[in-house]
Design goal:
Length: about 525
């Protein structure tokens, strides 16, 4: 009995000590912290987990819109966590991403929402430089030129499937079909083998499910980083047993696929007849080839199976929903706006007298299609809310005030892509013509959808190749009509990526006569 009493008393003391500590820390953060001068919610100033929990769990992905409201109220700087500011100023964004900028990715964010050490997750600038150098040959403009036939072949198969649906008078699920297209492209590039989503029933297979299931966990990871840190610190088998999240199954599959790829690549080929009889399972993967080549960059060390799988999952994630969601928003907005639809189809018909004439290289030179694609990127910004960077060691000055080293500065591509100083009063409208204005040359510099600087998107050229090839062929070959889709069906919330919560876009199509 005495033992129980002592234990209860001990626990009580710990509880009281924790409450006192919490209150003292809250007082410091509210009144004495170097960021205490900045406006924002008091909850944000006191506790990052509970502020994020409140807006992203309780209010389901709404923190970005709350921050938008706070910026309207308070101006370009808002405190969104004890040690984090959100800055909404296009010129400050230029400063943070200019050549030689010493801002680095915030490890407390990237180490919990990505696999650390990968192209996206690496926060150390010199290690990131090496990884980008290793991967550059897989995503360079020259490599994308070589990938054009592969992308076109997948577009042709996707559109052949559309035609079959149209012959049956079935509507087409653009959301799922574009995901299938983007995932088949990126899986072929990174693994040398496509996942076969384009021909899967309803464009759904296990791989699409794996990637999608990951989104729901994004905010949990950032709001409660200790839990994520704990799971990552465990041996992989224990972590998988305690936290059975689907991404771990995808990781196992990727480890096997990489092994199979390397075995097939390195298998001795003795004679011509052997080569002929051997079934080739994999195409070339420049990604794996360079990652396992110790000479692919100075100071690059070859990855083990688990690290390779981590990198592959990051590339699959980075290259799927981003591209597919921009394409979906582009199709929706282009059909919804009759004059955009008309100009686009007229330009394509004039440029490509028959659909056999359509090529990526010709399509990317079309001014109106280019304006529509850029506007879709601006308007949809698939990674809308978070790109947190840390103030360098020597500190930083923001509007004349000193900001200490290691303060986190976040910028939101959704907000910057709508900033009135750059995009004007119609920033919230879909208006491709803005890219054709005589004074539009500076706009590219301010578009933040791919981020900027040394950590800008590595897959930008590939994404453009996919978008131009798909959209030019779709709008040139088919008449498109919205099917039971309104703005409500296209609503999204912010789960670190734009997460569409409605029924999404469905269309009916009819083949055009050449
Ligand atoms: C329209 C499509 C795409 C958009 C809008 C987009 C957007 C972005 C953004 C905003 C970032 C910076 C993220 C951050 O700093 O937190 C990023 C990074 C990255 N993206 Fe993309 N992306 C797209 C397509 C792709 C594709 C197709 C790939 C191919 C694998 C890809 C690979 C990457 C990689 C590897 C990074 C990390 C670069 C680094 O941190 O150094 N992305 N992307």
């Amino acid at each position: 009995m005495e033992g129980i009493r002592q234990t209860a008393l001990g626990l009580l003391k710990v509880g009281v000590a924790y409450i006192v500590f919490w209150m003292l820390r809250a007082t410091y953060r509210l009144f004495f912290h170097p960021l205490a001068r900045y406006p924002g919610s008091r909850l944000a100033a006191v506790s990052k987990p509970w502020y994020e929990w409140y807006w992203n769990f309780h209010h389901n992905g709404m923190m970005l819109f709350e921050i938008e409201r706070l910026h309207k109220l308070h101006g370009p700087v808002v405190r969104i966590a004890p040690n984090e500011l959100n800055v909404n100023d296009p010129e400050i964004f230029q400063e943070m991403t200019k050549v030689g900028s010493q801002f680095i990715k915030d490890p407390s964010f990237y180490h919990v929402v990505t696999f650390p050490g990968t192209s996206i997750g690496e926060t150390d600038p010199s290690r990131s430089r090496i990884r980008r150098q290793v991967l550059a040959p897989a995503f360079s403009p020259a490599r994308v030129q070589e990938l054009i036939p592969m992308v076109k072949e997948k577009v042709d198969r996707l559109l052949a499937g559309f035609l079959e649906s149209s012959n049956r008078s079935d509507p087409i699920d653009i959301f799922m079909s574009m995901k299938a297209f983007a995932l088949d492209v990126i899986s072929e590039i990174v693994l040398g083998k496509e996942f076969g989503c384009i021909e899967a029933p309803g464009y759904k297979n296990q791989f699409v499910e794996y990637l999608h299931s990951n989104f729901d966990l994004g905010w949990m990871a950032t709001a409660f980083p200790n839990l994520t840190g704990f799971s990552l610190s465990l041996p992989e088998w224990l972590s998988a047993a305690l936290f059975p999240i689907p991404i771990m199954d995808l990781k196992k599959k990727c480890v096997h696929l990489v092994d199979d790829y390397l075995r097939e690549r390195d298998a001795p080929r003795v004679g011509v007849s052997d080569v002929a009889s051997k079934k080739i399972e994999f195409n070339k993967s420049v990604v794996i080839d360079t990652l396992v080549d110790p000479t692919s960059a100075k100071d690059h060390s070859v990855l083990n199976g688990s690290q390779l799988a981590d990198e592959i999952i990051m590339l699959l994630s980075a290259g799927t929903d981003t591209t597919s969601d921009v394409i979906m928003v582009c199709i929706y907005q282009s059909i919804k706006n009759a004059s955009v639809h008309k100009k686009l189809t007229e330009e394509l018909a004039a440029a490509f007298p028959t659909h056999a004439d359509i090529t990526y290289d010709k399509a990317r030179k079309l001014p109106y299609l280019t304006a529509v694609i850029k506007e879709s990127l601006r308007y949809s910004n698939p990674i809308p809310s978070k790109a947190p960077r840390m103030v360098p060691q020597e500190g930083w000055t923001l509007y004349g005030h000193k900001i200490p080293a290691k303060t986190v500065i976040n910028t939101s591509s959704y907000l910057l892509n709508r900033h009135p100083s750059i995009w004007g009063q119609d920033a919230y409208d879909f208006h491709p013509e803005r890219w054709l204005d005589s004074n539009a040359a500076h706009l590219d510099k301010y578009m933040t959808s791919f981020y900027r600087g040394s950590r800008q998107c590595l897959g930008k050229d590939l994404a453009f190749c996919e978008m131009y090839t798909l959209l030019a062929n779709l709008f040139r070959q088919f008449e498109l009509e919205m099917y039971n889709t309104t703005d409500d069906d296209m609503k999204w919330i912010d789960l670190l990526v734009t997460y569409f919560v409605g029924s999404k876009l469905h269309v009916k199509i009819k083949k055009r006569v050449d």
